[in-house]
Amino acid sequence: MSVQVSYKKQTLLGVLILLVIFAVFEIFAQIYQIDEDTSCNFVKSEVYRNIPENILIGMCNEYHKIKLVHNSYWQIYPDQHYEHVNINSFGFRGPEISMEKPADTFRIFVVGGSTTFGSAATSDDNTVPGYLQKKFDMVDLGLNVEVINAGTVGAYSKTEAPFVKDVLFDFNPDLIIVFDGWNDVWISYTSHIDERGVEGQLYDVVRDLHDIMPYYKTPFVIRDIAMKNKNTFSGTWDETNLDKKISLWKERWDEVCISAERKNIKTFVMIQPILGTGDRIITESEKPNLSADEDFLLVPIALQKYADVLPELTNCTYKADLTHTFDNHKQTIFFDLGHVGDEGNMIIAEEIYKLVLPVIQKS
């Protein structure tokens, strides 16, 4: 009898010790995640040097609250509303729209990743699609031009192509603008072909746990330690598979453009500018972003290879290389390798406006 009691005490003691260990680790994880979750590169950047830090921190907190649907499209959960960012009932950033296109309207969807979504924009109107809308609102074209922000954080051709075909086509658009390239370059080839390995599976497990227990932070710390120096989508950037990724990128968008043409929808594929592309001399404030990792120096070179094959997208209506967009701008534009602030978004939108205006006028 005493032996059984002893075993029970030992078991209970062991359980209590484990609980204490888990509790201590969770306290550490909570502190760690507070620092991680509330950090945004743009808060300390020259890009927003004229905006009070408390406002920037508020923006940062809002962007971290945005929830994504974990499906093959990486859509955004609908009906999320904050001071600086609003997601409408269809999961698009910006004002409400109708599924049915209004009469006398030229409807444009802008597709891309966080740079299209506007992950550091001070408002919905100050994203690339937002500024583009404002440009068209200033001219009389004899019809209404509607620009819809279909950008999603982390999106790339593997998620965007089916998103366009399965979701956006139902909105009867006149033009699909694809503005990206950076994520396709950076995301590992294994993610492109659905062979993400143990690290990718770990990322998915932690993500799913967060959906079930959003306040439990220990899995995030374990993931970050296990994936130290790895990109979010598993694996370090591997230049040896670049040609294969470019082939997949071309194949995906060619298929989308063929489908769009059958529906009388025009397509415009654009390669975005990032830090180090074009002939622009980067500022002292921007240099640490490019030199933080030797791989970062190779990413702009790799992105240019995507721009070089744009002419091979023979089924797409229009193509454009925007990697030189900032060549004549000497001010600080980027706060990391590819994200810009409001001013950068406005400059990009002006360039896109020049390209798209003739398309609308022809229509």
For the record, the count of structural domains works out to 1
Supply the number of helical segments: 13
Strand order of the largest sheet: 4-3-5-6-7
Query: Which segments are poorly predicted (pLDDT under 50) over 5 or more consecutive residues?
Result: 34-38, 229-235
Keywords: Membrane, Transmembrane, Transmembrane helix
Protein name: SGNH hydrolase-type esterase domain-containing protein
Transmembrane segments: 12-32
InterPro entries: Ester_Hydrolysis_Enzymes, GDSL, SGNH_hydro_sf
Throw out a few tags for this protein.
363 residues, Rossmann fold, five-stranded parallel beta sheet, two-stranded antiparallel ribbon, 13 helices, 45% helix, Ester_Hydrolysis_Enzymes, phosphatidylcholine lysophospholipase activity
Give an overview in words:
With 363 residues, the chain is α/β, with parallel strands linked by helices. It contains 13 helices and seven strands. It has a single domain (67-196, 233-362), classed as Rossmann fold. Helices cover 45% and strands 10% of the residues. The strands form two sheets. The protein has a five-stranded parallel β-sheet with strand order 4-3-5-6-7, sandwiched between helices. A two-stranded antiparallel ribbon has the order 1-2. Helix 1 crosses helix 9 (218-226), helix 5 packs parallel to helix 10 and helix 8 runs antiparallel to helix 9 (218-226). 36% of the residues are buried. Mean pLDDT is 87; it is low at 34-38 and 229-235.
